[in-house]
Write a structure and sequence with these properties.
Elements lengths: L21 E5 L3 E6 L5 E8 L15 E7 L1 E6 L2 E6 L3 E4 L5 E5 L6 E8 L5
Antiparallel strand pairs: 1-2, 2-3, 3-9, 4-7, 4-9, 5-6, 5-8
């Protein structure tokens, strides 16, 4: 097995609170950034503001992984709802409806998402 030695300023290493990339949306609901450095995967971060919700969507041919970093709220996944908080990871199957709600009155719900392909939502 071969390991690549990373330097402190390596482009291969991201900070979970600043994934690099470009800001895709920044409005009263959330700030969304996408890092498209890789050929097949996108790393995206969402800072969902207090008492706000994402629009919710589903897409065929694309699985996603949401890693909640800080804050708390609720997640809809198809016909289920459950609480999420910093440290939780949610696996979103291909074609499943998903939506996130920040239930905090005072702080942001911050999560990082990884998905294959291009943003189609």
């Amino acid at each position: 097995m071969t390991y690549k030695i990373l330097t402190e300023d390596s482009d291969d290493k991201l900070n979970v609170y600043d994934i690099g990339g470009v800001t895709v949306k920044d409005n009263e609901t959330y700030r969304l950034k996408d890092n498209t450095t890789l050929n097949n995967l996108v790393v995206s971060s969402t800072e969902l503001k207090a008492m706000q919700s994402t629009r919710g969507h589903k897409h065929q041919g694309q699985e996603e992984v949401y890693h909640f970093i800080s804050g708390y709220g609720k997640m809809e996944l198809d016909d289920r709802q459950f609480h999420v908080k910093g440290g939780d990871i949610v696996l979103i199957p291909d074609g499943s409806f998903h939506r996130v709600h920040n239930t905090s009155e005072h702080g942001a719900l911050y999560f990082v998402c990884v998905f294959e392909g291009n943003r189609n939502h």
